[in-house]
Amino acid sequence: MSDLYLLNLQFLPATASDYDEVMSISGGIHDGVDYLPFRYHEWLAEPQRRMFVARSEEKVVAFASFLLVDGGVTAVLQGLRVAPWMRGRGIAREIQKFCFNTLRTNHPGVTKIRETVEENVPPSLLSKSRLLHSKAVVSVFLPNDHLEKTTQLLSCRLLSVYQGRPPVPQSLSKVLRLLDDPRTAEDLFPKGVLIQDLLPLTTHKCNIELLARWGIAWVYSKPSDLLTNPIEGANSSSISNLSEHSTLSCTSSGFLSLSTPPFPVPLEKGVYRLNIDLFGSNPSFAQAHILHHVTEAVRVLPPGGSIVCFVFAEETLRKPVMHYLHGMAPFPAYRELLMLERTLEA
């Protein structure tokens, strides 16, 4: 604590003018595909979010934010980072403590803290949190000069084993109607949780409306969209590979997915990140939805752009997704995303 006292930390609301300093302490975060450079100014405009910096000797040495969700009873922590030369000195703990104190003072209705973390969670964090859910993560790099071949390959792989209607984009009203059906909601979100673009939410109506304001693309396949017979002429090897991971059935559950348009990341100029969030358990639908989102991303990608694609899915879909994306360059990142929650004590 004496070391922290000597640092004379000041915690202040983050502003637009802090952008360059926050970026200067963020090098290498999230393996070069950090979302904050693109989201920072958007976050400043969100009325439900608060952003803070820690300064020492007039320099930004840490950043953190929280977003109010679930109708104001939960705060989601996001974007935490500490300057490389200040790590290991307890600064992350101090700026989080400042966030918690701000919540207690200004948002007394908040009772829970939620966050997503990558694998290898520190025991100290697990000891004070409960694990709500986890998602498998499969990530690949799609270079610009292979995008056309990639979409063609994914399309051929899907057509060789899948006969069904394509996924359908959904309006906000249709998504809310889907979630009003308890059976559908349970099939899609077994634990009532929804992770979008690393943001840990529940299926509370206000959270769905929040995502809609951000321009999230919702795509759905109903159970009857998946037909029972493979396309005539499909090769036996393709059918064998599919049968290892799925069962084609009209009575299978529906499938929901969502994504945002690809956004630029610091890895290198012209590289964009695409997050695809899958909800459901049917591997055939998973493949169809991945193809839909990749195709849409390529359609809106600026000329010369390449894509780092992250697919977040239930653990049971890890092998089918990896099989579908086989041959594409793996992007070395985390393999699992954990959703943690703790109580905000008074």
TrEMBL record:
<dbReference type="InterPro" id="IPR056483">
    <property type="entry name" value="Hisat_C"/>
</dbReference>
<dbReference type="InterPro" id="IPR000182">
    <property type="entry name" value="GNAT_dom"/>
</dbReference>
<dbReference type="Pfam" id="PF24066">
    <property type="entry name" value="Hisat_C"/>
</dbReference>
<protein>
    <submittedName>
        <fullName>Probable N-acetyltransferase 16</fullName>
    </submittedName>
</protein>
<dbReference type="Pfam" id="PF00583">
    <property type="entry name" value="Acetyltransf_1"/>
</dbReference>
<feature type="domain" description="N-acetyltransferase">
    <location>
        <begin position="9"/>
        <end position="159"/>
    </location>
</feature>
<dbReference type="GO" id="GO:0016747">
    <property type="term" value="F:acyltransferase activity, transferring groups other than amino-acyl groups"/>
</dbReference>
<dbReference type="InterPro" id="IPR016181">
    <property type="entry name" value="Acyl_CoA_acyltransferase"/>
</dbReference>
